[in-house]
Amino acid sequence: MTSRARLATWGLVALLAVDVALISLAFRNPFRQPLASTVSVTNDAASTHSSPPSAPPTTTATAPPPAETSAPARGPLGIVAVDASSAWKFRQGACPAGGSKLWHSANGGRTWDEIAIPFSVISRVQVTDSTKILVVGSESTCRESALHSTDTGKTWSPGGALSLWYPSPATPKEVVNSAGRVSTPCGETDAVSVSSLSATSAAVLCGNGKVMETANAGSTWVEIARNLKAAALAVRLEAGKLAAIVAHPGDGCSGAQLSVVVGTTVRKIGCVDLGGRESAGLIGEAALGIEGDAGWFVLDDATYRSDDGGKTWAAA
Questions:
Q1: In this structure, are residues 203 and 212 in contact, taking their beta carbons and an 8 Å threshold?
Q2: Confidence bin at 301 (pLDDT 50/70/90)
């Protein structure tokens, strides 16, 4: 091949290369990103969608658990007097949070021994003597049952059928009578404690300081001790009728005034000197127990005793 022919051939090859390059540029998508800038997204196993390629990676923060702002609910304080030397004190607790406590004193309240019991809530305590006790309560299920002990709480056995009054651990507004029937003597307010004389006769201390009484097993309730703003309640039998002994604020009493309420009649009987502390606002923190002439009043860890039916009181 002559040199002139070779030059012609190489010229044709060069023209073909230029044509191919021009055609490639003509069909190229000007909006397509170069391969090197493509974002690869890896889906997490717990994710249901992925972010768009242009979105920056995000981090999901796990919130810390909320801090506790208050102690577990303790529930109201209660006391059941046996005699001048012996009494049982209990902290009701709350359902299902628990927090109940049970104590026994055999020396007039000078010291208290804590008694272990497999209940997280204690609704009612009934005693026959210093060693025999029946307790209505519940565990975290909030289902009521009874336990009894004949050795001052060293051992416990199932107590059988519930046949006494008690406030409901699951629904604090409700009171259960000895036949198992429920009523709401305090309306929309919680029932703090219930004291009874029989299957039909009982009195209830409400969370707003009212005292309600029934003589027909809870079918109807009547407010007694009006305007006294009761802080604690006990009952006893006087002349064949329920007599409510109420601890409340009173003129001339630096502490808790004790009055006996029978029907619409209110009779002051004594004053518990609380060392300058008033009884107003102590609902649930104070408890009163009367058995014959033996009177017991507890406020937090303090114990006060009476040996004359509540007329005079002294710190234990």
A1: yes
A2: very high
Both tokens of residue 223?
């407010």
93 backbone dihedrals φ, ψ, rounded to 5°: 80, -175
What Cα–Cα distance (Å) separates residue 115 from each residue in 91, 106, 152, 153, 157?
12, 13, 8, 6, 14
Output DSSP code: residue 98.
Answer: B
Cα separations in angstroms, 30 against 19, 20, 33, 68, 127: 19, 18, 8, 61, 94
Tell me the pLDDT tens digit for each residue of 191-202.
Answer: 999 999 999 999
Residue-wise pLDDT tens digits, 150-164 = 999 999 999 877 889
Single pTM value for the model: 0.76
Domains of the chain: 77-315 (2.120.10.30)
Phi, then psi, of 66 in degrees rounded to 5: -65, 140
- Beta-ladder partners of 138: 121
User: Cα separation of 214 and 277, whole Å?
Assistant: 32
